[in-house]
Write a structure and sequence with these properties.
The chain is an alpha+beta fold. It has nine helices and 15 strands. A hairpin with a 2-residue loop joins strand 4 and strand 5. The longest helix has 19 residues. The radius of gyration is 23 Å and the shape is elongated. The structure holds zinc ion. The site of zinc ion (ZN) has 5 residues, from helix 3. Zinc ion binds next to helix 3.
Length: 376
């Protein structure tokens, strides 16, 4: 066996890097992880989608018979929020089983767990299918790092993906897709005392909002994910109270299921709303992630996770979206599971923490998943 890294100590070290996004600035944190992995025998590449916005890919092993298994996580975090923290968000304070800090659950603990596993197994992986670790920047705002890696075709091969997002070590088979749109209506301004001389963009938008309430998705329902949804999230328009508004804008959040193509969805919304003079533009696009629960590897992961859970896993999806969707595209569509030590309900919270016990379990879990894949 190789060098041992304590996942708790590594989580604390990663928490000390301020990778709040915006602005992100993940470079120093990415290079620290890269140095650890290079020291353990991994070949490491860095990819920056913008200045200081550094993702890394670390590889070891490789065989002609079977592709590597990918473990992935993001190093950026969300901001601290308006409420005051009672713990230092960067110091890795502990209290009993709790390790506090911004990113402790989402998801520096998950990265620490798989990096600890990767370092320990490294000496035995040379002639095995091997590992590819993808550690991304910029996940919290539109999966920018993962999109860059997939679009630039630098990922290579992987036969399965483990996304170490916070799930309390429950293995989830996917998440819905996320597609956000901006819809604009236009009119002609006039003095508010003579509305008949103008053309009211807000009145047009009222019709658009009403129309969207009856929108039918091309796929109505999914056996595990349920229904796709649509929510009008923001609205603005108008210059002042005594003018006819010549512009109004809404933003729309749709959550999609497999079988709904986001490009087509944008076109359907555009043609539905065109008679009302509305223009539609897509803002955010993360595809749905889904692996059939009866897939052999998924069942194997369920078996590995079961001893750490109260009941045997059943097929479920998580409510947030992940880099997994873009990485799956970049890797050519292998199965993916979302499982990691953090607690989903603590992600993005004030006084975010991670269970130290779950972190240790996660490192064990990842070791077993990697060993079974690599035949060790
Ligand atoms: Zn996350």
């Amino acid at each position: 066996m190789g060098t041992r890294i304590d996942p708790r100590a590594l989580t604390r070290e990663l928490l000390a890097f301020n990778t709040i996004n915006p602005p992100g600035q993940e470079r120093a944190c990415a290079h620290r992880l890269g140095a650890i992995l290079e020291g353990a025998g991994y070949s490491v590449e860095y990819h920056e989608f913008a200045d200081t916005r550094t993702s890394l890919i670390a590889r070891i092993g490789g065989s002609a018979d079977k592709p590597a298994i990918c473990f992935t996580g993001h190093i950026d975090t969300v901001p601290l929020g308006a409420a005051r923290w009672t713990r230092d968000p960067f110091a890795g304070e502990t209290d009993g089983d709790r390790l506090f800090g911004r990113g402790s659950s989402d998801m520096k603990s998950g990265i620490a767990a798989f990096v600890a596993m990767a370092v320990e197994l490294a000496p035995r992986l040379a002639r095995s299918p091997g590992l590819v670790l993808v550690i991304t920047a910029g996940e919290e705002i539109g999966c920018e790092g993962a999109k860059y890696l997939a679009d630039h075709q630098v990922l290579g091969q992987a036969g399965a993906i483990v996304v170490a997002e916070p799930t309390g070590n429950f293995p989830y088979v996917g998440h819905k897709g996320l597609a956000w749109f901006e819809v604009e209506t236009y009119g002609v301004t006039a003095h508010g005392s003579m509305p008949e001389l103008g053309d009211n963009a807000i009145v047009k938008m009222a019709g658009v909002v009403e129309e969207l309430q009856h929108f039918r998705f091309p796929v109505d329902s999914h056996p595990v994910m349920g229904h796709p949804t649509l929510n009008v999230g923001t609205i603005r328009g108008g210059l002042n109270t005594n003018s006819v508004p010549d512009e109004a804008c809404i933003t729309v959040d749709t959550r999609t299921v497999p079988g709904i193509d986001h490009g087509h969805l944008c076109q359907s919304l555009a043609s539905l709303l065109a008679p009302r003079g509305a223009k539609v533009r897509q803002l955010v696009d993360t595809p749905a992630l889904y692996t059939e629960p009866d897939h052999e590897w998924v069942q194997d992961v369920f078996t590995v996770c079961a001893p750490y859970l109260d009941a045997p896993p059943e097929p479920r999806i998580i409510t947030f979206s992940t880099d997994g969707a873009d990485l799956k595209r970049g890797f050519g569509g292998p199965p993916a599971i979302i499982v990691g030590p953090g607690e989903a309900r603590l992600a993005h919270q004030t006084d975010e923490w991670c269970s130290i016990e779950r972190l240790a379990q996660s490192a064990d879990l990842f070791t077993t998943i990697a060993r079974r894949w690599c035949g060790l």
